[in-house]
Amino acid sequence: MRIRLIAVGRRMPKWVTTAYDDYAQRLPRECRLELVEIAPGDRKSGDTARAIAAEDERMLKAIGRDDHVIALAVDGKPWQTKTLAEDLRGWLGDGRDRCLLVGGPDGLGPASLAAAHTRRALSALTLPHPLVRVILAEQLFRAHSILIGHPYHRA
Predict the structure, then answer these.
(1) Residue 38 is part of which domain span?
(2) Residue 28: is it exposed, middle or buried by C-beta count within 10 angstroms (0-12/13-18/19+)?
(3) pTM of this structure
(4) Is 109 a domain residue?
(5) Going residue by residue through the chain (155 aa), what tens digit of pLDDT does each one get?
(6) Is residue 46 part of a domain?
(7) CA-CA distance, 9 to 22, in Å (whole number)?
(8) What are 15-21's contacts with CB under 8 Å, separation 24+?
(9) I need a surface site. Which of 47, 65, 118, 148 has the fewest CB within 10 A?
């Protein structure tokens, strides 16, 4: 099974890339995490709707035909570490690839949200989208450590 983190934004600060890569590389092959960066829409013109539509289009092209899509959205069902571990156990059991969608500064567009099978929220807080990459990678590693009984997670 493959987990693809499809995220709007390129050229992240070095600390984001370093932290994301560190956690992603810790995950085993059976639940490898891959980052797919989507170019942000042009917001210079002031047309936010057009920028979001462009991001939506790119994001939909990155989703595999048979992928199970999970949108990260503030209005999604809250995700707790133990819940994510339970979800990961199910994902590993069915072997179907997963796509985690992370929007840009204005969130996910309507087409991306409509394509999602599930909506999840990492926090009730508004998080900067570069930080979400790091949090997701760390939480996936933590969830996997729970499943294998590794002492990384201390409840």
Answers:
(1) 2-148
(2) exposed
(3) 0.92
(4) yes
(5) 999 999 999 889 999 999 999 999 999 999 999 999 999 988 888 888 999 999 999 999 999 999 999 999 989 999 999 999 999 999 999 989 999 999 988 889 999 999 999 999 998 888 888 899 999 999 999 999 999 998 887 77
(6) yes
(7) 19
(8) 16/130, 16/131, 16/133, 16/134, 19/134, 19/137, 19/138, 20/133, 20/134, 20/137
(9) 65
